Amino acid sequence: MPAQDVQEIRQLVARRKRWDKVFAILGLLSMMVGVMTLLALIIDMGIDGGGRLSWDFFTSYPSRHAERAGILSAWVGTALVMLVTAAAAIPLGVMAGIYLEEYAPRNWLTNLMEINVTNLAAVPSIVYGLLALGLFVYQLDFGQSILSAGLTLALMILAVVIVVTREAIRGIPAAIREGSYALGATKWQTVKDHLLPYSMGRILTGIIIGMASAIGETAPLITMGALTFIAFLPPAPVESGFPYLSFDWLFAPFTVMPIQMFNWVSRPQAAFLENAAAAGFVLLGMTLAMNALAIWLRFRFRKRGNW
Length: 307
Description:
Structural class: mainly alpha
Largest sheet: none
CATH class of the largest domain: Mainly Alpha
Radius of gyration: 25 Å
Oligomer: single chain
CATH architecture of the largest domain: Orthogonal Bundle
Order of helices and strands: HHHHHHHHHHH
Strand content: under 5%
Shape: globular
Number of helices: 11
Helix content: over 70%
Number of domains: 2
Low-confidence stretches: none
CATH superfamily of the largest domain: MetI-like
Number of strands: 0
């Protein structure tokens, strides 16, 4: 090869390496912007609301007096709403994802369903609030309850669960399916005994991340009529007498952490702003805990040899 051609190739390789370094630096800077923004937010809320974080703050009801106000009804309502959301979205989303990926015939109807599922993820959250107000609150007569709120948030993350399930199943090597079929397994046995166990890490990760995003939603819950001030708890789901389980809490009025924060931020007193910062710190901690759980589950399933 002529020396001139070798020199041109070396210059081309060096130029490409410079662009690789530039792209790596830009990527690092972009990541640092997000990390530093989150860190600044945590520090700011910790400075503003750190003094209000105490056991009394977690076990007290909201109050007109800022120094006595707490988040008991808010965090209990958030936990119950997310329980309903998980109970509704996880089985429906996983089963729908399995059907679309493994059982649905490839025709125009399936393509239409896939397009609609993809578009659902881009629908503004307030539209889900209007849907919940018309369907769950008025048509099905669930009222402005925990059940209505949980079903609303379940609809919001349903598309995410379906897409995550499909992508997780699609990522399983074809050799696993072929080996299962070669041994005489049916399609359902292949899905149940091979595809789902191997893809469970990714599915759980996507579900938890979807729920972590839903936990901070405010617009759909305000639209459907969630209370901004509530000084009591829903009925307990467990009773001392037979049948020991009670579902009255599903139809109880509620509030959640974001709405409680909105109520405090709208007050002119500085002490209520401190309460809002403390509640925001707690909500951010709950969100980060859910994301940490997703990372731990992903690592756990990978360590066990699952994809």
